[in-house]
Amino acid sequence: MKLKTCIGIVFILGVLGAKAQAPSPKQPVDYVNPYIGSISHLLVPTFPTVHLPNSIMRMVPERGDYTGDVLNGLPLILTSHRGATAFNLSVYQGNALGTKAIIPFRYDNEIVKPYFYAVMVEEQGTQIRFAPSHQSAIYEIKFVKNQPAYLIFNTASGAFKSKGNTIAGYQRLKHNCKVYIYAEIDGSPQQLVSDSNIVKWYFGDQAQTIKLRYGISFISEQQAKANLRREIKQFNLDQVAAIGRDIWNKALGKIKVNDPNENNKTVFYTALYRTAERPVNISEDGQYFSASDMQVHSDHGQPYYTDDWIWDTYRATHPLRLILEPQKEMNILQSYLTMAGQMAHFWMPTFPEVTGDSRRMNSNHGVAIFADAWAKGQRNFDVQKAFEAAKKGIEEKSLAPWSDKPAGWLDQFYKDSGYIPGLREDEKETVPEVNTREQRQTIAVSLGTAYDQWCLSQLAKAGGDEFSFQQYLNKSYNYRKIFNTQTGFFHPKDKDGKFIEPFDYRSSGGRSAYYGENNGWTYRWDVQHNIADLIHLMGGNQSFCKALDSMFAEPLGKGKSTFYRSFPDQTGNVGQFTMANEPSFHIPYLYNYAGQPWKTQKRIRTLLQEWFRNDLMGMPGDEDGGGMSAFVVFSSMGFYPVTPGIAAYSIGSPLFKQLSIQMPNGQPFEVIAKGCSKENKYIQSASLNGKPINRTWLFHDEIIHGGKLVLQMGNQPNYQWGIQIPDKQLSAAALK
Fold first, then answer.
1. Which among 476, 507, 555, 685 would be 20 to 30 A from 279, CA to CA?
2. Does 6 have pLDDT greater than 70?
3. CB count, 10 Å around CB of 593?
4. Selection from 529, 702, 683 nearest residue 596 by Cα
5. Do 215 and 293 fall within a single domain?
6. Which of 195, 221, 252 marks a domain boundary?
7. Residue 13 located in a structural domain
8. What percent of the chain has a predicted confidence (pLDDT) above 70?
């Protein structure tokens, strides 16, 4: 009786103490919800990835998709964004182990945080916890039954060596690359069974906790061991998780948000976390393995990065990093320039991955991130070398999508005629450089190359090459060659210079024949570098805005099932506008360039609220390693980099009442949106550093040096604010 009384008193005191103690305020990482976007209408936008910012070590639960209730063992390393994991760890407790290399299990009570993972094996009750470091990680497996307990390691294509409480080995990746592992437990197994690619550890028949730590390397088993020893010195998972939590709070805390809407904060900080998955720093103790030449190199004190789909990330992810972490961005750019020099051809990479440049998608937008960095004041890279690598990638490599072949007939045609010719529906493809699945994407490639050539002109100018500057500036107007003045769309032409007819801009050619993942309505606006000239081509400001209005109202033209069968990437639709694919991100901001900024303000706020939410379906399409998330971060802050390569940002409608961006120089840039609410999305007036402004753009220097943008918000448009048309500093048209 006395014992029960004492227990009761202790319990009550504990409860009273908990009530008396004020809860700790939430930190930025506490707002991250890795499950956002785990389900979508068609494609899978995101995965609940556990990792530290831009680090080798990444982990994603091994299941078919979020709705599946079976895990196929436990992953040890994700080697490529949206790619397969390497190695596998299965846990089992019972008397019927069998011979399977990977043991699937039903799971429950899963917890995912950027720095921590936990799950329970449903049938066995086994408790599993995980925490990552940069190049190593730790698992804790708690077997709760008095039955035989096993850990089973598997490598699908490789080999293991096991001794005592350690395992070392490798797994082959694409292109003969390898990832290496060194793992050890805090004890010794009672029995060890192993062959070349499977190791089974037996730990006895009782409830117990096994702690496993391991290092990963792309260099060697010895380096994997060194990485582990450097980062995780004890079998202390809580300590590793605490360090990871602090790292994330420091990274996410560069932007502080003050707003009562908790869901908006969750969406925002989750998007910011997504921008830090890629690219990954693969330097290991001052050296790295490069798949570009299959050699190990010294990094000379400069971290080496890879795994970046630049087609997706040049638009907003790289520009965001230029604001928040310019030194990291410079290390990334220098990595790509070094990478180009390691290739058989000195070509700027476009889709650098751990296993090499995969040359996916269309165009050669690696040039854009260099042009953008230079325009925004970064000088610590060789601009002439960057120009040469980008020029060779555009001139010497085929412009055909998803191709790494040398330039051929299509490329010569583009040089002679200024556009990629399209095939009519009854014509067969005969050009060997063309990927039969991805086809020519004639409009997407023609427009993308015109933008790339404008970026080239800017690098040439920066390097003092006036001849090349003028040459590529002239070529950057090639989009005019495929503009149909009768319809106001970019329209595919055949090799004889005739528009292909009949033609429906909503569906003709599917996703790949003429456009890329999207239809003609999306690519109608794909002239990022020369918006003023695009407005001119479309008949002036009023006609331009009317055409934008019609895009958001134009129906799909067919049933959804039929439409999405042809355009699975073009989801998140508002009329013909797609929020789900990167070429659309700048479109809502284009009203600013034609004197109707209130429409940008309404549209941006509506898109953020409709398509980006704190739930499993809170992303409208493929997120692609930071591409879409960077749009969310920028647009929520209230401005967006419409033209990478021009040091300015277009103002939208901030989502928060107040936010502060900590600049690398220690000074904050604040955005204060007075009266901001769901209804109050329209800018009534604005001031920058205490001085009234009546323009819809900010210059890069006005942000990075710190300052304060104050916006007075209201629930009705102010038809007089911001109607000034952006001047020549925001358009390439005046540069010719």
1. 476
2. no
3. 24
4. 683
5. no
6. 252
7. no
8. 96
What average pLDDT score do residues 366-389 get? 98
Q: How far apart are CA 434 and CA 432, in angstroms?
A: 5
Q: What CATH number does the domain containing 658 carry?
A: 1.50.10
Give the count of beta carbons closer than 10 Å to the beta carbon of residue 589.
25
CA-wise closest residue to 117 among 143, 139, 133, 150: 139
Clarify whether residues 412 and 541 are in a common domain: yes
Based on the fold, state whether residues 200 and 314 are members of the same structural domain: no
Distance separating alpha carbons of residues 454 and 280, to the nearest angstrom: 29
674-677: Cβ within 8 A, 24+ apart? 674/710, 674/711, 674/712, 674/713, 675/712, 675/713, 675/714, 676/259, 676/711, 676/713, 677/713
- In angstroms, the CA 260 to CA 366 distance is 39
Is the Cβ–Cβ distance between 493 and 422 less than 8 Å?
Answer: yes
588 preceded by cis ω (within 30°)? no
Q: Does residue 643 share a domain with residue 558?
A: yes
Q: Domain for residue 158, yes or no? A: yes
Residue 2 has pLDDT above 60, yes or no: no
- What 8-state DSSP symbol labels residue 725? P
Check whether residue 286 and residue 413 sit in a common domain. yes
* Cα(521)–Cα(510) distance, integer angstroms: 13
- Asked if 541 and 725 count as a contact pair (C-beta separation under 8 A), the reply is yes
Looking at the chain, the whole-number percentage of residues with pLDDT higher than 90 is: 90
In sequence order, which residues have a C-beta less than 8 Å from that of residue 10 and are 6 or more positions away?
none
Cβ 603 vs Cβ 591: under 8 Å:
yes
Angle separating helix axes 466-475 and 442-462, nearest 10 degrees: 160
Looking at the predicted structure, is the pLDDT value of residue 482 above 70?
yes
Note down the domain range covering 172.
31-252
3-class secondary structure, 174:
helix
Rounded CA separation 183/711 (Å): 55
Residues 431 and 518 placed together within one structural domain of the fold? yes
Nearest to 706 by CA among 674, 671, 676: 671
Q: What is the mean pLDDT of the chain?
A: 94
Backbone angles phi, psi at 3, to 5 degrees: -60, -45
Structural domains in the chain (count) = 2
**Domain final residue pick, 252, 282, 310:** 252
Euclidean distance between CA atoms 138 and 126, whole angstroms: 16
Q: What does the alpha-carbon distance between residue 444 and residue 512 come to, in Å, rounded to a whole number?
A: 9
